[in-house]
Amino acid sequence: MEEDIRLVRLTLQGSRLAFRQLVERYQNFVFTITYRVLRSREEAEEAAQDVFVKVHKTLASFEQKSKFSTWLYTIAYRTAIDANRRKNNDTRSLDDSEVFLQVEDTATASPVAVLQNMDLQEALQEAILKLKPEDATIVTLFYLNEKPIKEISEITRLTETNIKTRLFRLREALKHHLTPFWESERGR
Amino acid sequence: MQEDQILIWKYIDGECSEAEKKAVEARIFTDPAFRVEWDYSKALQSELSKQQPEQPSLRFQTNVLDRVFKALPAKPAQELLPRSFVRWTAGLGSALTATLSWAVLNVSPYSHSHSRLDHVVDSALARLAGTIPYSTFFMIAMVATTLAVLYLLDMSLRRFFRS
């Protein structure tokens, strides 16, 4: 965190090297957020680039009230959601609680048959990409970025209760999706 | 069933009270259905914690830096010497070189003019030409010419990059 602040200060003083280091530190995490929202590597990369361009333009407005990473992920999340809305021409509210996450089963082959040919991590990644963008972001921030619920609430502007509810539902959905894999493992 | 799932996730997230913890730990050994839920939840937790971030393409960083820094106005090139100093030096150097050239190459000790002023100037230049050896004059002329060429090159390059 202190290193982030040091790099932010140096970037504001005009250091290109410091900004390059910030990009290096966070590019994978920012890309993961945009990829899980947009589900296309090309679009996610474009959106992640937009994130860093915005960060550089608005760095002076970062007031250090929150962690730099929280501020950065907020921009990443907003940019990705906006890009997704433009893509889908989707004007639904993020807080539309009627729309729950649904992990779709593969339509043709049986889940067990599909999962047996997959690595568990691969199956999990695939399932996460099938979550709603907001839920995919919550699971990414909670597990990959190890952000506490409070910070996820700041980033997504969802209430803490809403995030806890969504986290419970999405974990159960993921568990349900992966159960055939574990059952087949037990059967062996 | 859902209460059990909620309780299990509360336990895994470290949000259970002591009483709830004890209840979960007891049921793992006494309730087979609860045990299955527990095992799958723990397995999912373990897999979720093992995730690695996605990696963008190798050109990602270069693309970002290109986009960020091409949008910024280019920094003015740092000048080694103030421009006014360079101009004055170039002017004085050219004037000195021209005078010396004239003195060394065109001095005639036998002026055809009868003017007293011409005679004084001619004799002064002849004396000056006599004190400066040709090698020194050649060196000064070369340095002055080089400086003039560099100055003109610098000006044209600045104009080229500005456009």
Characterization of the model:
The complex is a heterodimer of chains A (188) and B (163). Chain A has 188 residues and is an all-alpha fold. Chain A folds into two domains: 2-88, RNA polymerase sigma factor, region 2, helix turn helix motif (Rna Polymerase Sigma Factor, Chain: A, Orthogonal Bundle), CATH 1.10.1740; 111-187, Arc Repressor Mutant, subunit A, CATH 1.10.10. Helix content of chain A is 73%, strand content 0%. Chain A has nine helices and no strands. The longest helix of chain A has 28 residues, at 160-187. The radius of gyration of chain A is 18 Å and the shape is elongated. The termini of chain A are far apart. The model of chain A is unreliable at 93-101 and 103-109 (pLDDT under 50). Chain B has 163 residues and is mainly α. Chain B folds into two domains: 2-49, no CATH class; 83-162. Helices cover 75% and strands 0% of the residues of chain B. Chain B has helices at residues 2-12, 18-30, 32-49, 60-70, 83-106, 116-131, 134-162. In chain B, helix 1 (2-12) crosses helix 3 (32-49), helix 2 crosses helix 3 (32-49) and helix 5 (83-106) runs antiparallel to helix 7. Chain B is rod-shaped. Chains A and B meet through helix 2, helix 3, helix 6, helix 7 and helix 9 of A and helix 1, helix 3 and helix 4 of B.
